[in-house]
Predict the structure.
Amino acid sequence: MSVTIQDVAKAAGVSVGTVSRALNNYADISENTRARIIRTAQELGYHPNLVARSLSTKHPRSIALILSGFLEETIINDFETMLMKGCYQFAFEHGVDISIHVINSAIQRRKSYEQLCYEHNISGAILFGLKTTDPYCEALADSKRPCVTIDTEVKGPHVSNVTLDHIAAFDELTQYLISQGHRRIVLVHGRKEAMVSMERLAGAYQAMERNGLQLTHDRIIYTNFLREEATQGVLDYFKTHAPDDVTAFLCMSDMLAIGVIEALKRLGRRVPQDYSVVGYDGLDVTNYTDPRITTVDQNIKEKGYEAARLLLDMLEGRRQAQRLVLPHILTVKDSVRRIG
Amino acid sequence: MSVTIQDVAKAAGVSVGTVSRALNNYADISENTRARIIRTAQELGYHPNLVARSLSTKHPRSIALILSGFLEETIINDFETMLMKGCYQFAFEHGVDISIHVINSAIQRRKSYEQLCYEHNISGAILFGLKTTDPYCEALADSKRPCVTIDTEVKGPHVSNVTLDHIAAFDELTQYLISQGHRRIVLVHGRKEAMVSMERLAGAYQAMERNGLQLTHDRIIYTNFLREEATQGVLDYFKTHAPDDVTAFLCMSDMLAIGVIEALKRLGRRVPQDYSVVGYDGLDVTNYTDPRITTVDQNIKEKGYEAARLLLDMLEGRRQAQRLVLPHILTVKDSVRRIG
DNA sequence: GCCGGTTCCGAAAACGTTTTCGATTCCGAT
DNA sequence: ATCGGAATCGAAAACGTTTTCGGAACCGGC
């Protein structure tokens, strides 16, 4: 069907091994034959079968992007896509090939991490969407295979983390609200058990405390990161609280901010004239809402790029496992009004 | 490292071939040994190495999702993600494994379609984002490998298309505007050369003509599907046209509609009170804009699901190559006002 | 002309499967 | 008892690479 390495070998009058070494830049080939082999390979339109290579080689440059929870409905699409873009960007620039694998918690229980890697000849992986309770977290720590987790804290001799300082970022976001004169702040909280929620909560506490404010329990609206819950939560909130009980809503995600704005609109209030709202994530959609939402950009595309770079460096022994903290970006838009 | 088929064979006291046949439901195995082999395989935690299988087998159940233009900035993320979700949904339900490959026009020129498939042992592919001028279009038509294109019309003995009737859909969208009393309609056009644009244009013409209206050239704003161009286009339009020259904007994509609304807001006009706007695609973001945008839902997730189903059916000989037209859904929201 | 050391390349093993082919066993029928 | 054929399984080729090992050829130096 297609042209294999033996076709090239035959055409060039050498053995398959020689062709392989010539094309893979081995040293023990005379420049003469190397050039000839490269030429005939080009003439025949030869490209190596990556599957066969993957099966054979001991040092494959093939890395995997493993997405957990991708199929769940609550998941924001933009994250995965941006991540993919970042990874592929790096992959294109450096000639590595990336495979994508979609899993969930159930699959993790059925098939071990090592098995998954073994099945697909994965030499190193980037993992996204892992919950701290997921089976793979332990597996990563024990594995000899280098890997990079994104936004999930896992420790192990061969596991790196790419993340950003969510505590500092949420602190900064909170501080921004305060600096704009807001004192009565309601926190719209994500899933209680989620690590990402807890970090952001810590950041909020930190900033409030520093400014002599306190975050009382009745000023927190709990959600599961679902937009509708934020809407309902705000509607409920005003049933038991006076309108001027709050001036700003501090949301743990952009989607929650959208939900909050929706509720405020239903109540006939305007943003940011009557209430200020901030989000977190930096989704594209925050540019298209009315008003555009002030948020913290997680810079997820760069996370993907840096994760891929870090993983390749680990695979090729240039870098140790490490925790890589990327900068976040407070993006001021139109959903906050200066008051007081 | 991991447990291979020979480990199972040794443990069960049979040959590797027997293990393979036992696990793959071949007939010529006594139920006795089959049960024993399955049991030991389970005990050892054996999972087949899919790479090796892919290299060896003649009838692989592995299909690929090939995304072209994924890295380009103008691309809407939601499309690819939704498509992936649909494909994976089907894959999970039917135990096939999907690999994702990201390409662009440049890669298409450098590496042939057959080569790409050969490299990754792809037995059948779903292709998205293909332009009619792309090299792969011809390649698909000539290939013996079954494939499914999404929204790109390609004819060939083994190529199916999954699409929706864009002409009818845009006709319906236009008709809806007209039925709401709109007579003076401006069309916000996508990339002129793109097939998708031409189909939508045809639908608009068709509906206008049926209602005794005409779509004059000066009533068309051309863009490259970029939001900013739509904004600028509308701003420019009103420099040379009176405000009441138009009552509705008919946009070829949701992003263009967002751009139009942005322009109208800048001009101090309200939607839908002063002008009506409709989009096309059914992106999630149309639910979060203000107002929510009336649009045609392309139902892209189902496209992915159906494409995967169709491809597997073709691979296993249950269905011929065909053109599959999925239903579209006119989703009426808040961006159109009834007038007249 | 012989020898030690490079330089270059071919032969073949290895990766883990699937699948063909043929060999063995077993059984009932002749 | 012999045979035909079915049932069951083992041996080995095949998939297309990479990589190890060793052998040939060549070289300069003695």
Remarks:
- Residues 4-6, 16-17, 20-21, 24, 26, 48-59 of chain A lie near DNA strand D (CB under 10 Å from a C1').
- The longest strand of chain A covers residues 62-68.
- Chain A has a mean pLDDT of 92.
- The radius of gyration of chain A is 25 Å.
